[in-house]
Amino acid sequence: MIRFLVVCLLGILCGLDAGAGTNAYLSVDAQLSVDALARINFYRAQRGAPALNMEARLAVMARDHARDMVRRGYIDTRSPVGDTLETRLRDARYPYRKAAQQVAVGSPTGAQLVDHWMARPESRDLILNRDWREAGIGYAARRHGPAQTGGALDHYWVLTLAAPTRRADRGWRDEILERVNRFRAQYRLAPLSLNARLNRAAQAHADDMAARDYFAHVSPDGKTVGERATSAGYKWRSILENLAAGQDSPRETVEGWIRSPGHRKAMLDRTVREAGVGYRFLSGDGGHTRQFHYWALNMALAR
């Protein structure tokens, strides 16, 4: 399942001054963001955590958020018009397992920003989390009118951390079957064999769930697993179906089914002999379900 952690850190070196005045963007110095990421990776290396890569979509998203904070005069992970980390990730069409965000104001350099975050336990734990693989760091500055502060700068920062998700490796169908059969073997049950028609039925359902933005055994037009198998040309005596969404590997998918009593019972059914597996990865999944990965397993006994 997709998870979010959103943290808002305010007033690192100076408070927000939202008073009237002429605001203008300074040139965004990409080097500041690069320096901040280098500092983060320095601390991660000390803890044995993998280095983060600056991801283009996350970087643009963070930069635009920093600029929006300058323009609208706020410091928050949610904008005044309701944009959130989730909506920004969706608009950026970034596929992820989980993501987190921090915002800050005041630090003039990336190193100073990260050092301050590392002094705070909550921020330090977030930055050093080993799950993260990619990051986007955005920076924007505000110049006050000369009458207010004599040209002093406020520095706005946005850090987005993410664990990306990718299409399952080739061979996912065979691996699902292997893992299911390995589980059945623990109970001395006969292995299942792949059936082309059941594969077609399962694949059609995985595709349909991704395309029509739902996750259910019964499709929006009322079709059941039995009807889908029949439409694919499979004549069945009994048929069962396991579904999963969000898991990005066969291992995680089957392990999830094993932990679920209903799915576990289906995989241990003594009567079924054949199986079909379907999988669809939707990288730009922007719907309500929005799980990126859709899995279907049909298990049946033919007539």
Give the structure's gist in a few sentences.
This protein has 303 residues and is of the alpha/beta class. The chain has helices spanning 30-46, 56-72, 85-91, 110-118, 121-127, 146-149, 172-185, 196-212, 225-231, 250-259, 261-267, and strands at 3-6, 53-54, 96-105, 134-143, 153-164, 193-194, 236-245, 274-281, 293-302.
What is the percentage of strand-forming residues? 15-25%
Q: Let me know the average pLDDT.
A: 88
Task: Give the N-terminus to C-terminus distance in angstroms.
Answer: 37 Å
H and E string: EHEHHEHHEHEHEHHEHHEE
Number of helices: 11
Q: Can you tell me the overall shape?
A: elongated
Largest sheet: 5 strands, mixed
How would you write the strand order of the largest sheet? Answer: 1-3-5-4-2
What's the alpha carbon Rg, rounded to whole Å? 25 Å
SSE class: alpha/beta
Helix content: 25-40%
Number of strands: 9
Enumerate the spans where pLDDT stays under 50 for 5 or more consecutive residues: 1-28, 145-152
Topology readout:
Elements: E1 3-6, H1 30-46, E2 53-54, H2 56-72, H3 85-91, E3 96-105, H4 110-118, H5 121-127, E4 134-143, H6 146-149, E5 153-164, H7 172-185, E6 193-194, H8 196-212, H9 225-231, E7 236-245, H10 250-259, H11 261-267, E8 274-281, E9 293-302
Parallel strand pairs: 1-3, 2-4, 6-8
Antiparallel strand pairs: 3-5, 4-5, 7-9, 8-9
Task: Describe what this molecule looks like in 3D.
With 303 residues, this protein is an alpha/beta fold. It contains 11 helices and 9 strands. The strands form 2 sheets. Strands 1-3-5-4-2 form a 5-stranded mixed β-sheet. Helix 1 packs parallel to helix 4 (110-118), helix 7 packs parallel to helix 10 (250-259) and helix 8 (196-212) crosses helix 9.
